[in-house]
Design a protein that fits this description.
The chain is mainly α and about 140 residues long. The protein is about 85% helix and about 0% strand. The longest helix is centred in the last third of the chain and has 32 residues, at about 90-125. It is elongated, with a radius of gyration of 16 Å.
Length: about 140
């Protein structure tokens, strides 16, 4: 497994959770549970993705801008999660923010997979790709 496969595996989980979140209603136990799982998944993934994917990319001119952009989007996602936690789950504002989060998560993951991965493939060696995957998987599990 290389770093791209490892990250894509978690991206699939995030897509599934954020899709499920916007299909929940009110202050249901489903909404609370999915929100908790999504928050945990996004926080853990961002922390280790930054360490084992973006950190090596920041050092290369070809990938530096894309790495910084990805990290900035992680912060935007964190801000939306915080806003959701500060908003009553039964309010229309909560669903509006959840839909913004849904859009941003899907945008971020697609951009990583279709742009950042291609650039990273040019700067990381095959050995690095495998080593980073191993380190990422050990940290996330």
């Amino acid at each position: 497994m290389n770093i791209f496969e490892a990250l894509r595996h978690d991206h699939d989980k995030q897509r599934s959770l954020v899709d499920a979140l916007i299909n929940t209603h009110g202050e249901s136990s489903d909404r609370q549970s999915i929100m908790k799982d999504l928050k945990n998944e996004l926080e853990e993934h961002a922390k280790f993705e930054e360490r084992y994917f973006y950190n090596p990319l920041i050092c290369d001119d070809l990938t530096q801008e894309k790495a910084r952009h990805g990290i900035a989007e992680h912060h935007e996602i964190d801000d939306l999660i915080e806003k959701l936690e500060d908003t009553k789950m039964t309010s229309s504002a909560w669903l509006i923010t959840a839909k913004k989060l849904h859009h941003l998560v899907h945008h971020h993951l697609a951009e990583e997979e279709h742009e950042a991965f291609q650039l990273a493939g040019k700067v990381l060696t095959d050995t690095q790709k495998i080593t980073l995957a191993k380190q990422y998987n050990e940290a996330i599990n």
